[in-house]
Amino acid sequence: MTQDLFNLGLARRDPAEEARFISLQRVRGYWEGLIGPGGALPGPAALDPRGLLPALEDVFLAERIGEGLLRLRIAGRRVSAPAGVDMQGLPLSAMFLAEARPALAHTVERVCNHNSLVTMELQAEGGFGRPALTARLLLLPLAAPLRGQPTVLGCLSTLGETGRAPRRFMVTAVVEERLGQRIRSASAAPTHSVTLPDFGQSALAQARNNQTEERVPDYIFAEKPADFTAAPLGEGAGGEAQATEPSARPKLRLVHSSD
Fold first, then answer.
1. Tell me, what DSSP letter sits at residue 190?
2. Rounded to an integer, what is the distance from CA 259 to the centroid of its chain?
3. Residue 150 covered by a domain
4. Is residue 211 part of a domain?
């Protein structure tokens, strides 16, 4: 496989072009929703056809039968359409030209042995009765069983007309995303401690330095009370001290019936 067909990381594509391959986005979104804690891959038993219903005709389930070889156990109707035969039970390589099969085999090994997500850009062979036909192939790893071969969830979405003759594909580009590296980079602990300043206290101190503190009056929501100064105890109106004598007769007197 030539290096120029192999690209690590996310591919930058035209959003309008991505909308034409919406089935791949739906299948990938469903698969990502099944990933367990720490990046645990879902097994084949976790797949529910109802979750894949919008793209079910573009979906296939394949098992590894040898180095770089996948055999389709289940295949949707549109997966088999370019080949002109039911692809269930046949190897995935039957849909590829002979010169493209080494690239396919290398990609299959990356998916099965390195938990890689792979998207392949495909171009169908042309000729008489064979109009322009492009496709995109998505291969998603599944948890390997204790006994048996690894399985792969796939989606093949085509753009164009198949024509009257069966079609086979050549590989124009391969994009690989390594699931393990993505999870480690997202969950890795920092290598050194970082101490951040208390921005709240700094801002408060800055405000106190730049502004004069003003006391809010108590009458902010009421009428201002009149000023009042109490006279010193024992002073009369003339300012002289006056002696205060107790009254000879109390203001209140208890009246009894015997009086």
1. P
2. 99
3. yes
4. no
51 φ, ψ (degrees, to nearest 5): -70, -20
DSSP-based three-state secondary structure for 216? coil
Structure tokens at 52: 């894949």
pTM listed for this prediction: 0.64
**Amino acid in position 99:** E
Instruction: Indicate which CATH number applies to the domain containing 48.
Output: 3.30.450.20
What is the dihedral angle through the alpha carbons of 153, 157, 163, 166, rounded to the nearest 10 degrees? -20
Per-residue pLDDT of 172-188, as tens digits, reads 999 999 875 544 433 33
Residue 84 domain flag: yes
Structure tokens at 81: 């359409």
Other Cβ atoms less than 10 A from the Cβ of 151: the count is: 21
- CB atoms near residue 172 (< 10 Å): 14
Q: Please list, in sequence order, all residues whose beta carbon lies within 8 angstroms of the beta carbon of residue 179, skipping any fewer than 6 positions away.
A: 39, 41, 115, 116, 117, 141
Q: Counting Cβ atoms within 10 Å, is residue 90 exposed (0-12), middle (13-18) or buried (19+)? A: middle
The secondary element (H helix, E strand) that includes residue 124 is: strand 116-124
Give pLDDT tens digits for 229-240: 655 555 554 545
